[in-house]
Design a protein that fits this description.
single chain, Four Helix Bundle (Hemerythrin (Met), subunit A)
């Protein structure tokens, strides 16, 4: 159901995207922190929507469809804004590109396997990747508005590189898990589609 609490939390994550994007156009260090607050709140909903859906037995096909899309939209939008407003070095563009390409690859793979009624469960490493990625992006959002004694941007960029490395590993794992199903006739593939948080 569209208006169930878990789905509303997921929708709120999408609604937060234009608000975070808008802060990039406002001058003043305070807006970096406002953006971080909005981004953190959106990230927290990623945990609570799944937890609430399981706790209240309100897991729906719409929620399984929307949850990973909301995550990818949020990450992609913020990475693009960080690049556009030069809040990361040009070298850090590379892990950002890797992360975005991987998200497109996994989304396409999930769509194919969903049509074939094959599940692709989320690995623990993918969840760690997502957590690290969100933390790194948070540091980059704050950027130069952070404490002078703390290399905030450097921490964010290093975290982004590590997240990109994990992204390549998990992306390869997902691809290798999907290849056998691509080679099978569709009539012989299994049933049950499963999408999860933190893909």
């Amino acid at each position: 159901m569209l208006t169930s609490p878990p789905n509303l939390l997921t929708l709120s994550r999408i609604a937060a995207i234009p608000l975070v994007v808008a802060t990039f156009y406002l001058e003043g260090a305070v807006w970096n922190w406002v953006a971080l607050g909005l981004f953190a709140a959106a990230g927290i909903t990623d945990f609570f929507d799944g937890w609430l859906a399981r706790r209240t037995n309100q897991i729906s096909s719409f929620g399984r469809f929307l949850d990973p899309i909301a995550d990818k939209l949020l990450v992609a939008a913020i990475l693009l804004m960080l690049v556009a407003f030069q809040r990361m070095s040009t070298l850090a563009f590379l892990p950002a590109v890797v992360i975005l390409c991987r998200e497109i690859l996994v989304s396409g793979l999930r769509e194919f396997l969903a049509e074939a009624k094959v599940g692709m469960p989320v690995s623990r490493l993918a969840k760690w990747k997502t957590a690290l990625q969100m933390v790194a992006i948070g540091f980059l959002i704050v950027g130069d508005a952070g404490p002078a004694w703390l290399p905030v941007r450097m921490i964010g960029e290093v975290g982004l590189w590590i997240a990109a490395a994990l992204t390549m590993i998990t992306g390869y794992d997902y691809l290798m898990a999907g290849v056998p199903h691509m080679r099978k006739p569709r009539t012989k593939q299994g049933a049950g589609v499963k999408a999860g948080d933190g893909a």
